[in-house]
Amino acid sequence: MKKHNYSAGPCILPQEVFEEASRAILNFNNTGLSILEISHRSKEFVAVMDEARALVLELMGLEGKGYQALFLQGGASLEFLRVPYNLMKTNGKAAYLDTGTWASAAIKEAKAFGDTVIVASSKDTNYNYIPKDFTIPSDADYFHCTSNNTIFGTQMKSFPKTDIPVACDMSSDIFSRKIDFSKFDIIYAGAQKNMGPAGTTLVVIKESVLGKTGRAIPNMLNYEQQIAKESMYNTPPVFAVYTSLLTLKWLKNLGGIEAIEKINETKANIIYTEIDRNPLFKGTVTKEDRSIMNATFLLEDEAHQELFDSMWKKAGISGINGHRSVGGYRASMYNALPVESVQVLVDVMKELEKSV
Length: 356
Ligand SMILES: *Cc1c(COP(=O)(O)O)cnc(C)c1O
What we know:
The model has no long low-confidence stretch (mean pLDDT about 95). Helix 4 links the parallel strand 3 and strand 4. The chain is globular. The longest helix has 22 residues. By secondary structure, the chain is of the alpha/beta class. It is built from nine helices and 14 strands. It has a seven-stranded mixed sheet. Strands 11-12-14 form a three-stranded antiparallel sheet, with helices on one face. Strands 1-13 form a two-stranded parallel sheet. The site of pyridoxal-5'-phosphate has 12 residues, from helix 3.
């Protein structure tokens, strides 16, 4: 039986994507060849890459606005250094918002390149809210933020206005809600949270911000080179790109970001309503900053843990243990998680209340 999979990443993808991807492993588009054995330079795969890059821009409403979409490797973690490499001038300055583990990992990499200012941080309260009152220095080369904090369960509901370029790590909420993506200059996301399997990172770049650092950038780390080679500077992760394309097509057929946002809001409402209603549970973050992707919550009384754990496991739920730095539970409700799975979890929470 298929589990109700709340894994934070790699995560659930649509069942039909799993099925179509499996068929392509055996016989891709009736070529008599597996997607795993064809050349990445074959016309069949070049078409996959082209379609995936175009569909990203279409879904984000960025067509014809000077943006390029790339499918790279190295995970979001490599973008932590690729962004300063490509945006921070020699002897330059960058501004970062520190909202969690991933944001601070990005800060650590930027520090190797130059003056890195932390405009605000919620570290003092174990990242349970999003700082809002801060000033972005106008002489910084760029501002960097994390739209959704996967581990802590907070999400930026609005983004600061600034005239300097903005880079954003959207790994765990890309394609989940309507955002004016044209306000950003670099957007990146490891595929495995909400878009596809592990192995590729989507990077969306406004081309006009590149080429201004005055530093020599190694080709693999150089966004301009990757754009010039149409995301094929070296062998791309063909299966990860193909499966991401299938997921993006699924999203388009569903009605795009607008349609999935409604579903995601429904799921988030169901779980947070129960967390707030049920006296056995409490949420871990400030209500206004709650993520619609990752809901983090604790038992009021840890003595109920063993019973609760056995109940959700019996109900076919998987992957809701919280990250070790927060404890408790984390229900990751990415795009492909059905509303019914959230209902199953909420029913178990109600059942626990009745049985203690
Ligand atoms: C998971 C995650 C990362 C790390 O992604 P990798 O692809 O494993 O490098 C970075 N940022 C956020 C917000 C994440 O959720």
